[in-house]
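The following block was generated as part of the benchmark described in Methods. Ligand: phenylalanine.
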Amino acid sequence: MEKTNRVSFGSKLGFLAAAVGSAVGLGNIWRFPYELGQNGGFAFLIVYLFCAFLIGWPLMLSEFAVGRMGQSNVAGTFIKITGTRRWSWIGVMGAVCVLLVIGFYAVVCGWSLEYIYQAISNQFSGQTPQGLSESFTIFTTGTWRPILWLVIFLIINCAIVVGGVQEGIEKTSKVLMPFLFTIIVVLCIRSITLPGGLEGLKFLFTPDFSKITPSVILSAMGQAFFSLSLGMGCMLTYGSYMRKENNLGKTAFQVVGMDSLISVLCAMTIFPAVFALGIDPSKGPELVFITLPNVFNHIPGGYFWGILFFILLAIAALTSTISMLEVITAYVSEQWNINRKATAIGTTLVIMLLAIGCSLSLGVWSDFTILGFNLFDFFDNFTAKILMPIGGVAISIFFGWVVDRKSREAELTNGGVLQLKYLKLYTFLLKYIVPLAILAVFIDQLLR
Ligand code: PHE
């Protein structure tokens, strides 16, 4: 394998901040709490943790290892490792998947900016729940406002990625992630100490195992995949910037642990607040944009907490979209030999077009559908149900079966330096459990 002097993250902490930043996003704050609320509270949490550690961890470790082994972008790494182009389709598919994910994700990122603005200009105050719901619908189905916000968001995102791996991504993550963590802990304490808030915790931590059906297990796994940014080469790309002396298994474990912790903290923030006001806890996606502003209207200091919450949402979203843009930027600039800055800007323009399409598909373009879905939902479903699972299976088969055992173990142990007690368990999970479990989800979802 040829040696390259690839840029790397400057420190272990910097890497961790960036990888956790990629993982923690709308998936944790927006999706996890309502999935938990709808699927049996604590029982769902247990199932989720099993999925995150038994499927997510081995897969994340494998993505890190494949990236660091080939020292290249999402497609180039497969070419460098095998010396052929036979497996590079995994990477190309990953890059396409990321492009589609960021297309719809950026729309919601834009909403988070609008809601920071609304919170600061005190627009929730005095509105009834009905009014909040109507203004959410009017805003999201409107034409110009959501586009304006998503364009602003994507420009900020682009500026960070143009800054490079160390100066842009690492520095930003190192500042934003501790900030994010502090905000969430503060919000969580505020929420639990509301009168009646403990009821929400009781709801969260009382398991209702009757709600655990095969389809709930499968949705927990889908959530783990999305929340851990797996199956499309994000962690692979970040892994390629990892230093040779870093402990991949431990780092992957820390990322999975932090991501799960933050998901749980988000749920522990949202449910006590919702219970304190006597609102139905199993509310779906509107939990964050309609229910919470209503909560902020009713609690002391709600003006301030509202601003803080939507800043949290925007930061979490931003550190995720940075990692998405990096996947495509590294791929296009390295494989096609184009200047990195030009690539990041060009890619951002393409993403803007896709995101504008997704945004309009909720309003004036809602009549245009693909297989019965508007563009936004089509991108969401096509990536989550088809591309990510295929990517996950492909990576586990590649690293578990195609790469020979000696090279695999050399990469995992840093050339024999580390003694890994979990090597056997990891290999078993990687070769059998991960692909079979993902296939089960895949087939189930196709049949639904
Ligand atoms: N993990 C992010 C979240 O939970 C989403 C994401 C998916 C980020 C894929 C990067 C790649 O919101």
